[in-house]
């Protein structure tokens, strides 16, 4: 793992011109995979991973949100 000003960057993840000194960061250049990996490792976030053979059904009070087959990775913010 590599550390950038106290922030741990997982091996294989290369930050795309992230400036940790800026209070407001432009995340439009950061890949979705990098954002997902960072959020998944945080306390208070739960990740559910479904494989290609799994039928995934996610529903709420408004009805079905997802009814499909994987692969699917879902992040749940429990904080």
Number of domains: 2
Overall SS class: mainly beta
Percent of residues in beta strands? 35-45%
Helix fraction, binned, reads 10-25%
| Strand order in space, largest sheet | 1-2
Total of helices: 1
The termini sit apart by: 26 Å
- CA-based gyration radius: 16 Å
Summarize model confidence as the mean pLDDT: 79
Which residues sit in consecutive blocks of at least 5 with pLDDT less than 50? Answer: 1-5
Shape: globular
Helix and strand pattern: EEHEEEE
Q: Please report the total strand number as a whole number.
A: 6
Largest sheet: 2 strands, antiparallel
What does this structure look like?
This protein has one helix spanning 32-40; strands at residues 2-4, 7-9, 45-50, 55-60, 63-69, 72-77. By secondary structure, it is mainly beta. It is globular. Residues 1-5 have low confidence and may be disordered.
Short description:
By secondary structure, the chain is mainly beta.
């Amino acid at each position: 793992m590599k550390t950038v000003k106290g922030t741990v960057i997982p091996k294989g993840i290369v930050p795309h011109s992230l400036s940790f000194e800026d209070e407001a960061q432009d995340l439009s250049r950061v890949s979705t995979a990098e954002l997902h990996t960072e959020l998944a490792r945080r306390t208070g976030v739960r990740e559910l991973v479904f494989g290609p053979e799994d039928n995934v059904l996610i529903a709420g009070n408004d009805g079905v949100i997802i009814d499909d087959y994987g692969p699917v990775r879902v992040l749940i913010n429990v904080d």
